[in-house]
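Observation: inputs received (chain + uridine-5'-diphosphate).
Thought: call the complex predictor directly.
Action: predict_structure
Action Input:
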Amino acid sequence: MLVFGTRPEAIKMCPLVNELKARRDQFDVIVCVTGQHRRMLDQVLGVFSVVPDFDLNIMSSGQTLFDITCKVMLDIKETLEQCSPDIVLVHGDTTTSFAAALAAFYLHIPVGHVEAGLRTRDIHSPWPEEFNRQAVDIIAQYYFAPTEQARANLLAEEKKPEQIYVTGNTGIDALRTTIKQNYSHPDLAWADGSRLILVTAHRRENLGEPMHRMFRAIRRVMEEHPDTKAIYPIHMNPAVRAAAHAELDGFDRLRIVEPLEVLDFHNFMAASYLILTDSGGIQEEAPSLGKPVLVMRDTTERPEGVAAGTLKTVGTIEGDIYRAFAELLDDEDAYESMAHASNPYGDGYASSRIAEILGRV
Ligand code: UD1
Ligand code: UDP
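Observation:
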């Protein structure tokens, strides 16, 4: 049984769902979605043609971590008892993943962790994700680590080497199928002739003043650089929307749009000059596309992209974001040193490796 509930988990689990389903002779695949995200999850399910067997449909507007944790725990119990799966696979670091793993643990069902071993080692950053991923790794019996670094992180916590498999990141599997030559979209046509900046933001620890500072810095730099246009597919969190509209409304060269389908978003990334984000998954995808990313966070659990030169953590102080963003626009050498395609997160075949391992264990 694969359990997931948010957009990024779906983008990274659907390739695995389809890979496992293709091996019908080996696996009975059950998909249980929590619906932690409703619309942003459904967008992804549609793209990958994944139809859940169970949908806990837990989302409420303005949901708290208590709401998500308790609802997932209580609602998934019956599904787990009814299906009695041989293994539950969860992904990454969301509250869906933590609560589903804990529920499986309470029922003595083995857990496999896809995208295991990422660490900042600061339990407050990202919050609550660093806790979630560490907690899932306490529970899990099978670790599907995307990189050697993630494996080293797990070994440093005395996880058993024979339980850790370095597979690459399944997010790169998705990227392999979404990027299209000759892709076009009206928003890209609008930005034609300008340097396109892609913006996203959603982290809980950035809600409030940090997010206001991020948007103010972006607007100031863009006001000083008339050859830029930005597209900002905005997260559905009402708190994000309030901050974005307060700081960015009335600035015509930055277009706020609804969340994009993943095929569109990947092609927007490919067409962009640079990306400003606090997202995790985008940090994995951008190096493959050779797109510089300014990570508006104090920490990153993706040091491979920093080592590859594509990512730079710039924090959430307005002046720091302003300087780093302006430098990338003004200094061609600084830009070129970041704009190199590299592939630290795998070759796009992580799902088939995980399927092969699951067939063996
Ligand atoms: C969650 C994950 C985070 C992940 C992010 C991806 C947790 C604690 N956080 O954060 O790790 O990086 O997803 O985007 O698991 N909403 C809608 N419609 C949607 C999706 C969300 O209205 O389709 C609203 C929710 O009702 C909620 C808010 O957006 O009020 C935030 O959603 P939530 O899942 O609680 O947290 P995220 O910040 O999205
Ligand atoms: N993404 C998308 N549409 C958008 C913005 C992002 O499909 O409008 C994709 C992006 O390519 C990446 C994932 O969503 O695969 C990242 O999700 P998010 O930033 O919400 O979560 P995180 O990765 O930080 O957990």
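Thought: report the result.
Final Answer: Residues 72 and 99 are 6 Å apart (CA to CA). Residues 6-8, 36-40, 59, 61-63, 65, 68, 93-95, 128-129, 202, 204, 236-237, 280 surround uridine-diphosphate-N-acetylglucosamine (ligand 1) (CB under 6 Å).
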